[in-house]
Amino acid sequence: MSHELLRVLIDEFGRGKTERRRLLAKVRSYLRLRWNSFLPLVFCGTLCSCGGFKDYAPDPISQADITREFESNRQSLASIEEFVTEAGYQNGWPPSTWGLDELTIAGAYFSPSIQLSRRLKELTDAIGDSMLNESGISLSIASEYHSREVVGDEPWGVGFVVGLPFVTKEKKKTLSDKSLLYKESALYDLSAAAWKLHSNLRDYLLSINFVDQQLELANQKLRLLMEVGELTQKRVDNGFDSSIDLTKRRLAIKDFEEHVLELESSRVELVSKLAGEVGLPFDAFATSGIFSDLLNKEVSLLHRDAYRTIALRHRSDLQKTLVEFGISDAELKLSLIAQYPELTFSPGYFWDQGDSVWNFALGLIMPKNSDVKILEKEASRAVQRARVKEIQTNILSDIDTEYSSILFKQSVLSLHQEKISQAFDLMDRKVAEFERGHTNRVELYEARIQLLDYSSRMLEDQFSLMQSIAALEDICESPAFFDSNISIGSINTREDL
């Protein structure tokens, strides 16, 4: 109220009943005029209080921008030294040789799948935070207006009611636990995406190593086949061999040249897929595609139980299912709490042309179909329990299967190593016979070709063994063999993401 109004009240106080009624009419008329003047101020103040609200910001998708960013990643590769250092990488950048660490760092920065997983984690965290506000405070504005006049004025009023739901301590704790578990599940999703990147990069690197070494053996064999073909041509010219033998050798050379081309094409395809997994264009590796060797890495096998322990501790799908079991258990607790009526306190205030009216209401929200919801949540928790059992049983079974496969392939590789040793002995005898003149150069070259064939088959066995070892590592979801010193989970998100 203004000073003028206070003065009027003081002067007129104590007069007769008629005068007080007349005074009250004046006050109501005065307040009505002042309220009409005050309404614009209230409206402006309400707008100003909304200054902390977020406005809609358009974020359109530009396919052209995505294409330009992808094509420019090759130039950006040399400018991420700070990110590389933060990841714990100590060697120079960009690397001259691409190993698992270097590829993992580049993938952590450029891979669109990792960027997507980080965004999904942010979304899940936001949903988890919203779970804490399921029972929030409400505010309702009440207004009243009547066209019928009282003492010369049209009655009207304005007020508000605050809804304060009563939330028990147990419900608050359960909601908090559910929110934390929901956020934790997002961490396991990101962990699964990071492991998938590691796994794919490792497999591509192993395949490239295999093809490179196969190409090296194939080129040696092709040179020997061509030399044998030239020798056969000379023997045909001198009447020692028939032209049919020469034609067969030339056809064999053509067939093997096709095999070499297939290997070269396979390498290009593997490097292209590797680049796509990292998030770089193909030419980022086409000119500097020197890769470290994982194929001949020495690995030592632990006891079977050790891999069971590692897998049960690190498998993200198992850990996430355990978290989901916890979420279903929390939801069951909330449904049990919801079977009781929900208590709500509603204090309020109403201003009626100078009269202040305070009120207080107590409300009960009766549950609806609570028994059905409880049965649903109990069934959901039972499903999650069965899912945990299924995943854990499959993990243990897969470890047994892959572990046995590794032992078998190690035995096969050992046999081929013995064959290679015998082939070298045979080669040494052929060389000695050739030097004594007991055999010709064609037979000597054919013995070398046979040795290369044995080496190629042993390389295939070595690759098959390393694939099984990689599969066991995937079952454990831990770098048990192909160590990587880079942890994607510890790398901070790119500032521009």
Describe the structure.
The chain is built from 13 helices and four strands. The protein is an alpha+beta fold and 497 residues long. The chain has one domain: Outer membrane efflux proteins (OEP) (Up-down Bundle), CATH 1.20.1600. It has a four-stranded antiparallel β-sheet, with no helix packed on it. The radius of gyration is 40 Å and the shape is elongated.
Number of domains: 1
SS-derived structural category:
alpha+beta
The counted number of beta strands is 4
Q: Which sequence of strands runs across the widest sheet?
A: 1-2-3-4
According to CATH, the fold-level topology is Outer membrane efflux proteins (OEP)
By oligomeric state, this entry counts as single chain
Core attributes:
68% helix, Outer membrane efflux proteins (OEP), disordered C terminus, alpha+beta, 4-stranded antiparallel beta sheet, disordered N terminus, 4 strands, 13 helices, single chain, 497 residues
Can you give me a brief rundown of this structure?
The protein has 497 residues and is of the alpha+beta class. It contains 13 helices and 4 strands. It has helices at residues 3-12, 17-49, 63-76, 81-86, 100-110, 112-130, 169-237, 243-278, 283-286, 304-314, 316-337, 370-436, 441-476; strands at 138-145, 156-165, 342-352, 355-365.
Topology overview:
Elements: H1 3-12, H2 17-49, H3 63-76, H4 81-86, H5 100-110, H6 112-130, E1 138-145, E2 156-165, H7 169-237, H8 243-278, H9 283-286, H10 304-314, H11 316-337, E3 342-352, E4 355-365, H12 370-436, H13 441-476
Antiparallel strand pairs: 1-2, 2-3, 3-4
Helix pairs in contact: 5-7, 6-7, 7-8, 7-11, 7-13, 10-12, 11-12, 12-13
